[in-house]
Protein 1
Amino acid sequence: MPFARSLASIIIGTVLKTPPLLPPVAFPFSLSLRNNPNHMSQPSHEFRHHWRVVMAAAIGAGCGITGATTYSLGVLINPLSDAFGWTRTEVSAAKTFITLGFVLTAPFIGYVADKFGVRRIAMLSLLALAIAMLAMTQLNGNIFVFYGALLALAFAGCATTPLVWTRGVATWFEKKRGIALGLTLTGSGLAGVIAPAALSALINAYDWRAAFIGMAVAALLALIPVYFFFFENGRQTHQTSVPPNVALHSGFAVREAFRSRRFWQFGFGFMLIGAVVSALIVHLVPLLTDAGMTRDLAIKMASILGVAVILGRVTTGYLVDRFHPPYVAGFFLSMPIVGCLLLSGEPGSVWLVILAAVTVGIAAGSEVDLVPFLTARYFGLKAYGKIYGWIFVFFYAGVGVGPLFLGRMYDLYGNYNIALDVAIPTLALGVLAIVTMGKAPPFAKPQASL
């Protein structure tokens, strides 16, 4: 196929630094990033010059392992349980094994990103993720094969996480870094809106395998904007040799971060927050169906959660550029406490269920936006990838355990009430750790221009 040949040649040519077999598509607007990737504009013009980088990163985030894959788990719990006779705890462990892959690879990906840049590893990972998604269609009912396949899926998509996309975007923005990162990560929020309904339609029309095929196609399509628009500021290309962005050399080294109280406080806080929020996201559809909702209505509620994720990311990104970031974090990340209270027992009305989904979605949007922003603000860009990689370990350790805990509580007690009661103080403790981080070091303050 001509398109497949062209796409393959582009990927291989990018990795091996050789020209693609077919020339890049001519666009009606200037690809200024390719001609001058080290250009840094005045803050008021940052989006005018670099919006294409944000767009490409957002698409990559939405089609990557932490985008459609994460939001598909709630839709796949019941179909996989019905197809293979697995318990809810066994299927819920899917999140744990995917997270284990993140934890094992995050420090390494952070090192590679800082040393070699993120563009090539992002493209290779999207391709590998698509192949791994197709391999998931060959599941045969053995739960251990399922877990192994999920671990391989996480390894394949390890460079499609927010660590990679935010590393590229952060190098282009200073004054508007918060909103730029927020918009970047709306890609996964859009996946939260689109994926539940789209994948459910594929499952209803065919079976659970169609959902994995759909996600594979999305990952392949994401390669196109990433190839043309996703570049780092300060990375030389064969077309230019402009001095790198000096902000890339400002901040903590990894060992300095390890000796900082804020690093451990940051990691511990987001480990607890990630555990609660991820558990609520993964179990939202079965939680609502157990409360008496039809599956179709529960999936629509899950789509509302995706809208709230987008709202949380954009709003948080806007506010952290203007107010003390830990206080902004405390406000948004404490919202799921209200959601837990509303979801305890049977929901009183559809509007209360919508409110509960919105509180969880806003927190989910905020947490993923806040981790990269606070990493850059408190530790700088010097070793951003490495430090974020270790923060990633803390965060996704919680993300992996939370859904498994909720699934286990359901299997033991037949409902989620006790698990939700435990979630409230756990979340409050995590939020407290973030709110008390204090003022950021002077080096981390954005500059007017470079």
Protein 2
Amino acid sequence: AKQEEGKLHWIPTYDYSDMFNISYIKDLNVDYRYMFSVVEMIGSSIYDGSEYVGFDSDTERPILIINYKEDFFQKVFNNSIPIEGSNYYVITKEGQIVSHKDQSKITSIMSIPLLNDMRKKGSGTDIITIDREKMLICYDTSRVTEWISVAMIPLDRLLSQVLPALRLNTVFTAMVVIIISIVLSYLITDRITKPIKILTQATKNVGDGNFGERIKEVGSNEFKELIHTFNSMNKKIQKLITENYEIKIRETEAEITALNLQLDPHFMYNALNLISLVSIRNQQDEISDMIVSLSKMLKYTVKNKKDIVPFKEDMEYLQGYINIMSKRFDGKFKVKFNIEESLYFYSVPKFFMQPFVENSIVHGFDSVKSGGVLKISGWIDDDSRCFIIEDNGKGMDEQRIHEILQPDSSSIGIKNVDKRIKILYGGEFGVKIKSILNRGTRVEIKLPLENAEENIRNEAAL
């Protein structure tokens, strides 16, 4: 599909077991043993109702693949030539057999004396001798697939059926034979190519970005099923593209909002640093320490726009936040860290622990005057990374935990962390919350050891 650069490409019949290396079905009688396919890379733009919108350069262009069972031709050919001893098959211009009554010959290369003439002429009739028997050969090249449909009819049997009515005139007989041959060739090729042309035209429309294309379900049950599948596929593709387009719009709006919120961050850093120097000069070390922590947090929030960040940087942000909150709630709680050193070599989702730490300090310890303990732990367990945020605060019941994780919950930060982890790493990873009233809350965050965003450890984080 990539080599054709947006054009349709037909792939001749192949053995499904050989193509996909599925040896156990080789000796089984399965109806999808032999298949042929058409592929096309979908166009680089879509029509959203008002204008054409191009795919981003970093977006992988989808490829449309339609598979046909080889018996698609057999059902068309069966009983199409009412002459005993006749034969029919479909071959490529290189002589590879696409369809044949004898399935053992499918995918093999067939030696035909007239193959070169067939390539040059495209369509026609001729008489050849095969095993001392004269055969009338009719052939036509499809403008869709460029494959050659061939019908071979024993000449003596053909003449024996029409000769009684044509004995009076030999010339007239020859003309009738030629006409019959042309008609037969036309009927055969038309019955084969007509349904394919319908799908081909629809596929071209889809390739041009018209994902609203729908085909009326006509023909045999098999063909109706094929059309139904095509229509369903188009509907799903259109839905996915619409969702992707809406996501891009939301991302752009979020980026614009973020830019509006920056408000010359260098001025804010300089102002905070100046306030810190004044505090030190006036021997207000505690205020200076809080301002330095706030300045680092602000710089991390504004400058680092990535979703995946080095764990060390995110941990420094979290420690700055805890430092400020410790000053705010002086003597109300203390924090204990137990982080395995090897975790600092990895990357994590940005702000993945901060909402839970904030929840423990603001809500878990709201009725505590002193003695609050917040434990933050992290370690590697087989192929996973485990992080625990645990407090001895007031806790909460199961109903409150359920409400926090609901889509319409007011706890946006906690819900978004779980959702981001599942999107980035899969449904088996995420957040679990356990809590007992008046005893405390335990939050477990599970991340994979390796993933698509961090195949190489981030040594620069150290």
